[in-house]
Design goal:
The chain has about 500 residues and is an all-alpha fold. It is about 45% helix and about 0% strand. The chain is built from 20 helices and 2 strands. The chain has a two-stranded antiparallel ribbon with strand order 1-2. α4 runs parallel beside α15, α9 packs parallel to α11 and α13 packs antiparallel against α14. The longest helix has 27 residues. The N terminus and C terminus are likely disordered.
Length: about 500
């Protein structure tokens, strides 16, 4: 494995050897090298003394923080879907293998309750849940045909219609959507059981503008693309080697990237959020659109709680701001693979190190703080994580959330998105409502701002450089102004090429 950059950089290897505050580094990453070099050579910029420490490995830091929030070191407050998301995220980093194993074991033990929505023997089949578990089983090199005594592969194939669409079964009706279809394609592609009709159907759901919708009703007049569904569908198509079918979706994602931030909202009118941005990054990275993926990665890193913040919060990824609030566990679970630069179809849990990696800061922790604090929280997880989980729990139990999802599947999902297992916004313990429901159910981020970036009270306090150096500040101002112009021009070239 190549050595880590001294300052965090996108997974494509873009690095910077000078420690800068995040806003300055974001601007620097978007400017031509000569202008950046000119700013860094100004008096006072050679010293690290005024810069806050940075996370050495953002993806691993997020994984370590997430492990510390598992109830009994095993599951996420009894939330099946979120537990699976965390396990998939941990596997993407190649760390915390023991925690991933415990989470996967717990899911296997409770698989039937999850897939039947708590009603074994009722004939209910939550196909999105079955697909997510089958994907995790393959990532962890387990048998998807015998996971907790269930043949997940067989269940998925039984729910495949003649038209190639995967549907739910049960008294509540069919609530399947784009996430259901995409997860099932991803899972069956790994087991070698993927029917071509399933991929054909997925490709056929693309809207005229190139993006993909949440609803699968196939009404051209009501085909509304959104970031989350497009990110999922594109990852599934690329995993199935349907690059030509994925290209329009990649183009759509690039065209919807917000010019002022580099992030994505759920739709064109939404402020950027970490969940939509993460899915877009994964899809673009898988499709070789590195420039757009890098810009999104920089925004995503800006909402991660860094080393200037409290030890126990470091590594968490906020929904729209760098805060470790009640939504952060869901946001972090979705963000881990994107920070690592790995698409869902490429995650492999083999050979993961057993323990979480101690969180490291560069150049050093703030005075009086210990970089191992987050790992200490992991080791003391049973009490601390359980308490934090209760404080941060999303609303409702699994049963209540599922009932809410069932009642609002078509109406609610069109307005608010879906969870990563294909249930309506709010399923699996996630909050309902909001205009940017995410792939993990984190909709309606409370306390988020339109900027989606650092705040004065966040981990980008005004410690980036000395206030006694007006030349440096003038150059920083020039850099930010230049970055906006440069980014806008570059995006225009990208969209017209």
């Amino acid at each position: 494995m190549p050595g880590r950059p001294r300052v965090p950089a996108p997974p494509d290897g873009r690095t910077c050897t000078h420690t800068m505050s995040r806003p300055l580094r974001r601007a620097a990453a978007l400017l031509p090298a000569p202008l950046v070099a000119g700013v860094l050579l100004l008096p006072g910029n050679a010293s690290h003394a005024d810069a806050p420490p940075e996370l050495e490995d953002p993806a691993v830091a997020a994984a370590t923080w997430a492990v510390g929030r598992l109830t009994d070191g095993t599951h996420a407050m009894g939330d099946h879907g979120l537990t699976a998301d965390i396990a998939i995220g941990l596997a993407s980093t190649g760390t915390a293998g023991d925690a991933t194993t415990r989470a996967t074991d717990w899911l296997a033990e409770n698989a039937e309750g999850y897939i039947t929505r708590g009603s074994p023997g009722s004939g209910t089949v939550f196909t999105g849940g079955a697909a997510k578990l089958a994907l995790l089983a393959s990532i962890e090199h387990r048998d998807a045909g015998d996971f907790g005594g269930l043949d997940l592969t067989g269940i998925l194939l039984e729910r495949l219609g003649d038209d190639g669409r995967f549907t739910d079964a049960g008294a509540a009706g069919d609530m399947s959507n784009q996430f259901t279809q995409s997860l099932a394609v991803l899972a069956l592609d790994r087991t070698g059981d993927l029917p071509e009709s399933a991929v054909d159907f997925l490709a056929s759901t693309r809207c005229a503008d190139g993006g993909f919708p949440l609803s699968l009703r196939r009404d051209p007049d009501r085909c509304t693309s959104d970031t989350d569904s497009t990110g999922m569908a594109v990852q599934a198509l690329l995993a199935a080697d349907r690059t030509a079918d994925a290209e329009p979706g990649l183009d759509w994602l690039e065209s919807r990237q917000q010019e002022d931030s580099g992030g994505w909202g759920y739709d064109a009118t939404s402020d950027p959020n970490s969940n939509s941005t993460s899915l877009a990054i994964q899809a673009l990275r898988a499709g070789g659109r590195e420039e757009a993926a890098d810009d999104g990665w920089i925004w995503l890193y800006s909402v991660q709680v860094g080393c200037a913040q409290a030890r126990e919060d470091r590594g968490a990824v906020g929904y729209m701001e760098p805060v470790a609030d009640g939504m952060a566990l869901r946001s972090t679970a979705q963000a881990i693979p994107a920070l690592q630069g790995v698409a869902l179809g490429d995650i492999d849990g083999a050979e993961a190190t057993p323990e979480p990696t101690p969180l490291e800061c560069y150049p050093d922790d703030p005075p009086g703080q210990d970089g191992g604090g987050t790992l200490g929280a992991v080791e003391g997880t049973e009490q601390g994580a359980e308490q934090g989980a209760e404080q941060g729990t999303e609303q409702g139990t699994e049963q209540g959330a599922e009932q809410g999802a069932e009642q609002g599947a078509e109406q609610g999902t069109e307005q608010g998105g879906a969870t990563a297992d294909g249930s309506a916004s709010g399923a699996d313990g996630g909050p309902g409502g909001g205009d940017a429901a995410s792939a993990v159910g984190a909709s309606g981020a409370s306390g988020g701002t339109a900027s989606g970036g650092p705040t004065p009270g966040g981990n980008l306090a005004s410690t980036g450089s000395s206030s006694t150096q007006p030349l440096a500040w003038a150059a920083v101002g020039l850099m930010f102004a230049g970055s906006a112009t440069y980014l806008a021009a570059r995006r225009r070239r990208r969209h017209t090429s």
